[in-house]
Amino acid sequence: MTKTPDTTTHQSALVPGSAPACGPVAFVGLGVMGLPMARNIAAAGIDLRVHDASPQACDRARIHGLKVSGELAQGLEGASTVITMLPDTPHVRQVVRGPDGVLARCTQGTVVVDMSTISPLATQELAAELADRQLALVDAPVSGGVRAAVSGTLSIMAGGAAEALARVRPVLETMGSATYVGPAGSGQVVKACNQVAVALTIQAACEAFTLGSRFGVQPQVLREALLGGAASSWVLEHLAPQMIDGDDSAGFRIALQVKDLRIAVDAAAGQGMPLPGASGALQLYLEAMAHGQQADGNQALARVYERIADVRIATP
Ligand code: NAD
């Protein structure tokens, strides 16, 4: 990122004492991640109102006993913390900049916590716009998937002003454990690094199974052998059984993996910097998308390798 965020400005944008620690909380985006995260906040007794653009998502939240605002403006009213858990950059921009959004509706001192995975550069721009109006942004993307969202054990990578993070930490702790990683946009940078490392580890496992299968080594045997040495990984332990069983269910959807690799590759390209591993992995995941696999889990990259190398990784 060429733009260096002015953290001093962001810190001073918060008016001390202008809002209570972290509640009332507005939560926007009740998808597969957002709904269980919101439920954990409510279960901790925090004053919470939730909103989603989809009426079906709102109905699901009502069934779980959450206080739902059908309109965004109504959800934001009186909130001192606004949490967003939305698909991508344009959706977060819409909620922040839209006519009924945060900039139009929220008062000085409000802290926006964006837990979606979006562009680091767009995050810096939004942080600056919010700071101009004395609102703060904490970018706090998560790792751990739906299972950790449900159990409240997400790993949260938080960027922004340390003071703003301190104020919202009690609410973040109902969803997982937050690590402060630096000024605005840093949370998204760390998340992009996480996604690059995971995608390349999945690719490495697929490539090992491809080579082994061509030479007739049973994938189960290969996995056992690799788990005992330097090639061992979380992917080999937790995702490889699905690769071998031909279980393509998500998990973490290929469509999201593509979005996240694009974020990383675009951020690097903006710096005039090559990211050859992530760029290659992106091409392979795009091959999966072209074969209609967008809703499959990211371990289904094994199917791409089966196609391009004409081998069988999944054993009958
Ligand atoms: P999702 O598609 O299931 O949910 C997103 C929700 O946002 C939907 O209910 C949608 O209706 C709502 N929405 C979209 N635009 C809106 C708007 N303008 N106003 C209000 N609501 C709006 O997505 P998800 O899987 O919950 O992922 C959310 C974010 O978390 C993404 O950025 C994703 O990359 C990230 N993430 C997902 C996982 C995972 O395992 N699914 C893991 C880690 C991080």
Please characterize this protein's 3D structure.
It contains 16 helices and 8 strands. It is of the alpha/beta class. It has 2 domains: 25-183, NAD(P)-binding Rossmann-like Domain (Rossmann fold), CATH 3.40.50.720; 190-309, N-(1-d-carboxylethyl)-l-norvaline Dehydrogenase, domain 2 (Orthogonal Bundle), CATH 1.10.1040. Helix 10 crosses helix 16 (301-309) and helix 14 packs antiparallel against helix 15. The model is unreliable at 1-20 (pLDDT under 50). It binds nicotinamide-adenine-dinucleotide.
Mean pLDDT: 93
Question: How large is the radius of gyration?
Answer: 21 Å
Distinct small molecules: nicotinamide-adenine-dinucleotide
Q: In percent terms, what proportion of residues is strand?
A: 5-15%
The first-to-last residue Cα distance is 47 Å
What is the topological layout?
Blueprint: H1 7-12, E1 25-28, H2 34-43, E2 48-51, H3 55-63, H4 72-76, E3 81-84, H5 89-97, H6 102-105, E4 111-114, H7 120-132, E5 136-139, E6 142-143, H8 145-151, E7 154-159, H9 162-172, E8 176-182, H10 186-214, H11 219-227, H12 234-238, H13 240-245, H14 254-270, H15 276-290, H16 301-309
Parallel strand pairs: 1-2, 1-3, 3-4, 4-5, 7-8
Antiparallel strand pairs: 6-7
Bound molecules: nicotinamide-adenine-dinucleotide.
The site of nicotinamide-adenine-dinucleotide has 24 residues, from helix 5 and helix 8.
